[in-house]
């Protein structure tokens, strides 16, 4: 196995304190334009976006995660700093992707083949900041033998599952990439690009932090390629070791089994 490398010289992103994390959630939830009539203003913008989508893209589906889903519209408005034009554009792309990709039809049964490998899963417990946890075990990912479309379906299913577990008042999830045992044959730039698109275009601001755990030296070339693609999302990445995962993100009772000492 290749020697482990922390890459601390590349990225420093310490975890938020519990109090700051809670205040951040409150601030994000209240981040609507204007001080006095914030709710009224945001409601008007939601209606405007909904009407634009109905008028310009009548073929898009309605209902949950559709063109008339007001919660989804508000979330994308926040992401686009309440620009109606940008929200309409991004929502159109996201809703169409969900439709074409068949996100609503994904289930554990439909992704069972790769799910059973244990290469990725949603942890049963939340982290200490109350976030659902998506764990990826890189050493079990083999792009040369695993169907890339099935990999993407598993990814979308698990992201949906993690988001469905968001507690009230919590808005994003924690991603943990377990890089112990990572080798060159586990590298998959195509899938990483898909993952970046998923969180930027289709699930914006749903990823609160990403931990790259015990990254070996052979991972460095891939990180140098991926980091520019992440843009502002690169600031969410923290390289750390498994002990940090145990002590700073979980209790003894809630730590994922793979990270128990």
The description of the largest β-sheet is: 5 strands, mixed
State the distance separating the first and last CA atoms: 19 Å
Relative helix content = 40-55%
Class computed from helices, strands and strand pairing:
alpha/beta
The total of helices stands at 9
Rounded mean pLDDT score: 89
Query: Per DSSP, what share of the residues sits in E-state strands of 2 or more residues?
Result: 5-15%
Shape designation:
globular
- Characterize the quaternary organization of these chains: single chain
Please give the radius of gyration in angstroms. 19 Å
Number of strands: 5
Regions with pLDDT < 50 over 5+ consecutive residues?
1-35
User: N-to-C SSE series?
Assistant: HHHHHEEHEHEHEH
How are the strands of the largest sheet arranged?
A: 1-2-3-4-5
Description:
This protein is an alpha/beta fold. The chain contains nine helices and five strands. A five-stranded mixed beta sheet has the order 1-2-3-4-5. Strand 2 (133-137), helix 6 (148-164) and strand 3 (173-178) form a beta-alpha-beta unit. Helix 2 (38-56) packs across helix 3, helix 2 packs across helix 4 and helix 3 (70-79) packs across helix 4 (84-101). Mean pLDDT is 89; it is low at 1-35.
């Amino acid at each position: 196995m290749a020697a482990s490398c922390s890459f601390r010289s590349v990225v420093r992103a310490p975890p938020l304190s519990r109090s700051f994390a809670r205040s951040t959630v409150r601030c994000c939830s209240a981040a609507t334009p204007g001080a006095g009539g914030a709710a009224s203003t945001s409601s008007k913008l939601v209606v405007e976006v909904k009407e634009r989508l109905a008028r310009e893209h009548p073929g898009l589906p309605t209902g949950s995660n559709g063109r008339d889903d007001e919660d989804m519209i508000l979330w994308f408005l926040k992401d686009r700093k309440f620009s109606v034009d940008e929200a309409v554009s991004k929502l159109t792309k996201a809703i169409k992707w969900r439709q074409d990709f068949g996100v609503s039809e994904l289930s554990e049964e439909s992704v069972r083949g790769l799910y059973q490998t244990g290469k990725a899963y949603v942890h049963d417990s939340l982290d200490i900041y109350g976030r659902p946890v998506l764990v990826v075990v890189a050493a079990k990912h083999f792009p040369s033998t695993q169907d890339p479309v099935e990999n993407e379906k598993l990814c979308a299913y698990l992201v949906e599952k993690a988001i469905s577990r968001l507690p009230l008042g919590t808005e994003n999830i924690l991603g943990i990439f377990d890089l112990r045992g990572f080798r060159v044959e586990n590298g998959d730039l195509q899938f990483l690009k898909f993952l970046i698109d998923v969180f930027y275009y289709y699930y914006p601001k749903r990823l609160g932090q990403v931990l790259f755990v015990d990254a070996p030296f052979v991972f460095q070339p891939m990180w140098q390629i991926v980091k520019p693609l992440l843009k502002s999302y690169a600031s969410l990445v923290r390289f750390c070791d498994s002990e940090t995962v145990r002590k700073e993100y979980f209790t003894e009772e809630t730590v994922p089994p793979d990270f128990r000492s």
